[in-house]
Amino acid sequence: MNRKTLFIICCCIAGLNTNIMAFDLMIGGNASQKSVWVEEKSNNDNDIAKMSDGIQYAPTIGLRTNLKYFNNETNWGHFYQFDGVLFDISKQELPNIDKEQNVGTSIKGYSLSATPTAFYHFKKNNENNWSYKTGIGVGLGYLKLNGNFKITEYLHPEYNQIKQVDVAAIGFSVGVFFEASNNNHSIVIQNFAPSVSDNKYNYLQHNVDIMYRYKINF
User: Fold this and answer.
1) How confident is the model at residue 18 (pLDDT cuts 50, 70, 90)?
2) Are 34 and 57 in contact (CB under 8 A)?
3) How far apart are CA 105 and CA 54, in angstroms?
4) Residue 93 falls within a domain, yes or no?
């Protein structure tokens, strides 16, 4: 484990304290688009491949710590978001084509992330009506990928060649969200994206979701 990884882990652990260890279980359904973007380190981190299977519909379950506010008067607060995602992507985005195409490549795997998230709560004291939250977080992510991709950047010297990927590593996880909630019901738009690297490429796994969730406190 290198020093960068150890630093990330220590920061996440240090952020946990006994005041935020009560959890909300979030269950419901979502429309989700999962994708894997590949960047080449030697090419100024430019995208050379984007894997995506379009929009998929599925039940969803999530976990986060209870909302905590920085003081009783403020609308600013924080929580920890925990996400786990399985994916099996068999199509790629191609230049100048609107819809993803099957080009004989696929990437499958899973991601795990723990993301400390800061948010702003609009209409915080509007208890029996809709209120709104938006926020951003940066934390720890684990990403495992196995499969292959085709380089689709026209100007790349290896354009149209297929490359193998087999990586499992810890890196950063970045997330943004918007939530409309009423009591235990909520509608959420979010993108939580872990990213890792190997010797040649950076891999960013996007999870863009629109979901309905019902909250259970415990």
Assistant:
1) very low
2) no
3) 15
4) yes
In this structure, which amino acid lies at residue 42?
A: S
Distances (CA, A) of 158 to 40, 140, 161, 203: 12, 33, 6, 18
Provide the H-helix boundaries in the chain.
3-15
Residue whose entry in the numeric block shows the structure tokens 């996440």: 12
Query: From CA 109, how far away is CA 146, in angstroms rounded?
Result: 6
* Residue 160, both tokens: 């149209």
Is residue 161 within 8 A of residue 148, CB to CB? The reply is no
Give the CA distances from residue 166 to residues 20, 68, 106, 143, 198, in Å, rounded to whole numbers and listed in that order.
36, 39, 12, 11, 9
Residue 20 lies in a domain: no
Whole-angstrom Cα distance, residue 213 to residue 211?
Answer: 6
How many structural domains comprise the chain?
1
Q: Residue type for 166, please?
A: D
pLDDT tens digits, 74-92 = 999 999 989 888 899 999 9
Task: Find the domain containing 102 and state its range.
Answer: 3-11+28-217
pLDDT digits (tens, 9 = 90+) for 110-134: 998 899 999 999 988 876 789 999 9
Residue 62 — very low, low, confident or very high, per pLDDT cuts 50/70/90? confident
The residue whose two tokens read 């993108």 is: 191
Name residue 7's amino acid.
Answer: F
